[in-house]
Amino acid sequence: MADRVALAALNAMEKAPFVAAIGDVFEHADWVAEAAFRSRPFATVAALHAAMVEAVQAAPAETQLDFIRNHPELGGKLAKAGDLTEASKAEQGSLGLDRLSGEEYTHFEALNSAYKEKFGFPFVICVRRHTRDSVLAQFERRLANAADEERNTALNEIGFITSLRLVAQVEGPGAPKTDGRLSTHVLDNVTGKPARGVEIKLLEIGKSASGLLVETVTNSDGRTDSPLLSGAPLRIGTYELRFYVGGYFKAKAIAAADPPFLSEVPIKFSIAEPEGHYHVPLLITPWSYSTYRGS
Amino acid sequence: MADRVALAALNAMEKAPFVAAIGDVFEHADWVAEAAFRSRPFATVAALHAAMVEAVQAAPAETQLDFIRNHPELGGKLAKAGDLTEASKAEQGSLGLDRLSGEEYTHFEALNSAYKEKFGFPFVICVRRHTRDSVLAQFERRLANAADEERNTALNEIGFITSLRLVAQVEGPGAPKTDGRLSTHVLDNVTGKPARGVEIKLLEIGKSASGLLVETVTNSDGRTDSPLLSGAPLRIGTYELRFYVGGYFKAKAIAAADPPFLSEVPIKFSIAEPEGHYHVPLLITPWSYSTYRGS
Amino acid sequence: MADRVALAALNAMEKAPFVAAIGDVFEHADWVAEAAFRSRPFATVAALHAAMVEAVQAAPAETQLDFIRNHPELGGKLAKAGDLTEASKAEQGSLGLDRLSGEEYTHFEALNSAYKEKFGFPFVICVRRHTRDSVLAQFERRLANAADEERNTALNEIGFITSLRLVAQVEGPGAPKTDGRLSTHVLDNVTGKPARGVEIKLLEIGKSASGLLVETVTNSDGRTDSPLLSGAPLRIGTYELRFYVGGYFKAKAIAAADPPFLSEVPIKFSIAEPEGHYHVPLLITPWSYSTYRGS
Amino acid sequence: MADRVALAALNAMEKAPFVAAIGDVFEHADWVAEAAFRSRPFATVAALHAAMVEAVQAAPAETQLDFIRNHPELGGKLAKAGDLTEASKAEQGSLGLDRLSGEEYTHFEALNSAYKEKFGFPFVICVRRHTRDSVLAQFERRLANAADEERNTALNEIGFITSLRLVAQVEGPGAPKTDGRLSTHVLDNVTGKPARGVEIKLLEIGKSASGLLVETVTNSDGRTDSPLLSGAPLRIGTYELRFYVGGYFKAKAIAAADPPFLSEVPIKFSIAEPEGHYHVPLLITPWSYSTYRGS
Fold first, then answer.
1. In terms of CB atoms within 10 Å, which of A75, C207, C256, D172 comes out highest?
2. What is the pTM of this model?
């Protein structure tokens, strides 16, 4: 993000460079930046984003629909290199929608067709806030919406998408909150001390497949040196933390059975707030444990 | 077990029918029953078993070795119908050693050969107290034993095997403890009441495969109508309990996130005491849980 | 309770002995037993009680009020030996209302006067279901009731009082549930076993004073040989369980700090359901514990 | 501490002003500062303290004994204004040893006499690291020591005392760790969020009396705005945290019984490490809670 433009610089720009600088934040819709230009100067990046969102909200329904229609289809036929803005490509790629199996591809296509048939615009979702399963769940849920409701839902998703893009392009105070955090902490209740040296894996658990996201080990404070996930929205979906406590207790020579009652402790949980902080600690003995969503 | 012989009847028998009745408890070794016959009458089934075990312990080492050698190999070439006593067949079958994959079969054969080469007798283990993974772990561990140590280990296993057989064949007071129990209990800490209607699965978790053992649901006391496992030794090995609390909280309209933080709670644990009672409860809210080995 | 009358015997009685046998269950109101007599025979003691309650419910309001007026005042001037039935004396005595301090006596008298002034009948409450603090709380709360509401509340209390009396006087199947139970269980999460030998105290915690109710020690199952409270209604009120775990861990040589982080664990809780089962376990290590209302 | 001398300034001083500046850190023993002077310059305040301690360690036993003898008696007859250095007065006063009851005073005097009789020097302890009960416990325990062992114990205590004094008098990098911290955190496991607005009291629990140390309330993060204790050594002794969760759940309209099962949650614990961090959180629902020593 070395070439982010400063908010102060944006505030000082003429209209044309202003639109050139941030027009592509709202896909194929320079008019959004043009409208926001009138509200200069912006005290915060969030205020700039709010002004752009307001420009969309203030537009006639038909303009909003045209705007939505200009977004690429998700994982569908239009998802070919030339048809996606660079930003859209990166977002869809991170989810793995470009690596759908044949069956999944067919299912997404069917949803795409049904959706477009019903609403007349492509399904828009901020994919960086969702796992593949969550995209699918949203797709099926939103198909049941009424037309007006769904137009608002699509604009709301565009709000999330453009927040992320604006934060990536503009440097300045008061950026909208777009990142979440997942952290953990292991406490050994036999010794009353943080558990050091516990191996941990974090997996994304999908319906058809699971993937290893992080592999790490606790430090002397019973935490990981960096959060398990951070610096981006958390993806709505299901995860599993695995704590390999068998090796820990063996190394500490803390008495356990043979084989030990607890060796690998799995904690399966779902994330619903991409911008939230999920602290998922483990309080452990060789014979018991507890966990909770902390803060 | 309709045709179990009564301990009182055994106590009243002449030698020949006594040996005919329980001689096959110790594989191909009527001399064990013959020796035990001298200690009649037996106040308890356990005392009868102890007398038979003592007869083996009192025998010369060479006799003990012959006795051990008369046991069938585990999952090896000799495990063909004709070579196994009926009891041995049932015990090995329950473990799935008759359904080894090609690779597993080869591995077991290699262990069998190495073991027999080193000790001069087949690997004897009370398979009803072990999962397949545990048999394998014991096999590898025992290969490292010294000869005398391993002879005692084999006799000890025969003690477990014959306890089970004797209990199956003789009815009477003071049977040796041969069965274990696994139970659970789900408490809803939001309402302070037992959680009714929580679906539960119990799986055996093997290195190469897992298998569903039980599928049930909690009753109004938060327990299952019958123990998850009982009436037989628990098999040493790894298990997973899965509690489907998402559906429970939804049905009770207890507020949770979307998707809920906790939906399926897996508890992975190992059993080390086949004759023990493992109570593995779950204390739950939509945002936290704890478990422990209870009693 | 050696001289309880059998329900079968009651069912076979003529009216006069029937009324003589259980007439005093409803204070100074033989007409209740007389009315219930018509519904003979009773399959259960609960059915007999229900019939008597129904007789009261079916009576005109003025009769009900007269009936309530015939109950003694609580802890007031009328609570002298001659004015109380033997049963009333025992019930009030168990609460310690006969040992009120001067200040408390004055407060009760003031409440008594205000109550009688407002409702025209004495304050009736099933004192065996309440601690002294709870009686006081009920007194203050019920003073705010409307007249009809309060007449029903009084009759409801008489239902509790008479249940207890009937169960004490009549033997037979289907007795109404009048007793509660308080139990505990201590699990040592360091060893995964029940904690044996933990000293426990149970106290009633009153606003002006506290009293030791039970002093006991856990057995090899981590439980107490008999429930902490049972065989009678639990009194609505506040309690404290004290677990002396410092001595337990010291005796087991389980490492702790000096002085130990946890030595005496107090658990303070209130009972709201006199006929309920309160299981209040303790899961403990030298550095952590948890408790919950179990079942 | 506005007039603390900078370590850099000390490092640049001639001997006389150096000794004048910090000579009184070691009671009536300028020779300690004089000896340490030779090791200038000091990179850290801890290094300066270590040099002073080393000077004492290197002294002949008789010099050490003289040095110890120059310390005031604890709460005894000598504890009159003129006999205490200003620092000693402040330290003893904070414990309340100047407010001993008659009985306690007599007990301390007896211990003082016995101690002085046995060891020939007054009982020295870093009172700022102890509650009154802990001072008494140490007194009784140390009376059983052998003479050499006790001389070392006394010097070790003087190490603690002088660390505190030096940190109070000298400003600079690398100060020895002399302060501890007690903190808490309340998590509401019904909502999965920090519990805001829970009233908390912290008490010191003494054998003969208890005292309220802190009264506070949790903020929106479920923590207290500042640590419960910090900025000084924690005093070895017993404490009780009281969490008034009844009011919290009532305010949040989270269903509970009447009276609520949990209203005031007491957590009683002891502190053994004055320079440690004790985090004592509460995980709570209306029907359950858990606590542990966290970090």
1. A75
2. 0.92
